[in-house]
Each structure stands twice: as structure tokens, then as C-alpha cells.
Write a structure and sequence with these properties.
There is one protein chain. This protein is of the alpha+beta class. About 40% of the residues lie in helices and about 20% in strands. It is built from 8 helices and 7 strands; from the N terminus they run βααββαααββαααββ. Strands 1-2-3-7-6-5-4 form a 7-stranded antiparallel sheet. The protein is globular and about 45 Å long.
């Protein structure tokens, strides 16, 4: 089952309808009260993250399900150009994007960087820690890939595995692990992926209640 696609913006338009869509999808699959709450929390977190994106951004939100396996989709694209976004960031107090605080802050930062599409400049450690490359890109330096970025996906599960391996000997990784443990999405979701699709950046959250 695939729900209708709801247009939402980072100014708040469409959010209520999107949350109603999540609740309706839960009812359609006969989720119990606790499961419904968790599904709606995932939707709320995704939409809340969208509101933190710099500049004007639109997104399509929908859910897909099979039995009690759900995927929540948010396909966003910037209304402003990359140059306009850079100009907005240049007038901030820090001269750059706000610090990516917490797990959802990191997801927002990855999506904002991906909006430029042509290249990811100065990729963050957490971006590289969760990066998945298609077989055709194996062996390429992820620091320098450009137009081929449509083949790139970031995975929460890969990020978790990397942080778990590093946290015993790395204070920064230990802090990131603490962020994961405190995150609603990182605790409730089975997987979170960010993929580039042309100019669109798709955030997908997976949850199996079975």
C-alpha cells in the first residue's frame, strides 16, 4: 500500500496533512496504539528536521507498507539555488551552517550538502562513516566524487557499525554514539537512508512492526 503524496514545506505547510496520513496508514495496517505512536513519532521527527533546513525547501511525503513493514519517504528539493543557499549561510553568525547537533542535525546537514548535487565539499566525518557506494564507484575517493553522486546513499546502519567500532578509542565517536542512543529516530527506526535522485534528496525511514 502506498499513501497519497503530500506536499510539505520547511515553513510548515502540509505538515498536519502528512501526520494525518501517517495515522491513517497505521490504522489501515491495524497497528496497535503503541505501534501507531511510534510510526507517528518517526513522521514527526522527519518533518521536524525538514523545518530546520536553510532557505526555502519543498518536499513530498508519503508512506509505503506491506503487512506491518513500513517505509516513510521524504523527497526534498530546494526552491532556492545552491548560490542563494550559500549566500544565506554566509550571513549567519558563524559564516557556515549551524553545527550539526544530534543525530537529526546530522541528517539535516547531509541533506543540505546534497542539495548542491554537483559535489559534496569538505564532507564531514559522519557523512563518510555512513556512506555506501554502488559497485560502479568502488575504489573511487568519496572525497572527490562529483556528478556521479546520484549513485550514492548514506546509511544509518553503516554509520552505527562504524561508530561502534571506533567509540572505544575515539572520543568524538563516543559522543556520536551517545547522540544515537538519545535519538528517537535512531532508536525506533530499523534503518534510515539518504539518497540522491537528480536534484532531489530522498530521506527514507524503515520500520518493521512484525
Amino acid at each position: 500500500m502506498k499513501t497519497d503524496r503530500i506536499l510539505v514545506t520547511n515553513k510548515g505547510a502540509g505538515v498536519t496533512a502528512a501526520l494525518e496520513q501517517a495515522a491513517a496508514a497505521a490504522a489501515y495496517r491495524d497497528l496497535n496504539k503503541k505501534e501507531t505512536l511510534r510510526l507517528c513519532l518517526l513522521a514527526e521527527e522527519m518533518l521536524g528536521m525538514l523545518r530546520e533546513i536553510t532557505g526555502e525547501t519543498e518536499a513530498g511525503f508519503w508512506l509505503e507498507s506491506q503487512n506491518k513493514r513500513f517505509s516513510l519517504h521524504l523527497t526534498a528539493h530546494p526552491v532556492i539555488t545552491a548560490a542563494m543557499r550559500t549566500e544565506l549561510l554566509s550571513v549567519s553568525t558563524s559564516g557556515k551552517n549551524d553545527a550539526a547537533v544530534g543525530f537529526m542535525g546530522k541528517l539535516r546537514d547531509i541533506m543540505e550538502r546534497a542539495f548542491d548535487a554537483t559535489e559534496v565539499k569538505d564532507p564531514s566525518a559522519y557523512y563518510l562513516q555512513g556512506l555506501l557506494l554502488s559497485s560502479s564507484m568502488e575504489g573511487l575517493d568519496p572525497m572527490t566524487y562529483s556528478a556521479g553522486a546520484t549513485m550514492v546513499t548514506w546509511s544509518m546502519e553503516k554509520y552505527k557499525r562504524t561508530i561502534l567500532e571506533e567509540k572505544e578509542n575515539n572520543a568524538e565517536a563516543m559522543q556520536e554514539w551517545d547522540e544515537l542512543e538519545k535519538s528517537i529516530v535512531a532508536n525506533l527506526a530499523d534503518e534510515v537512508r539518504i539518497s540522491l535522485r537528480g536534484r532531489d534528496v530522498e530521506l527514507t525511514v524503515y520500520k518493521d512492526f512484525g
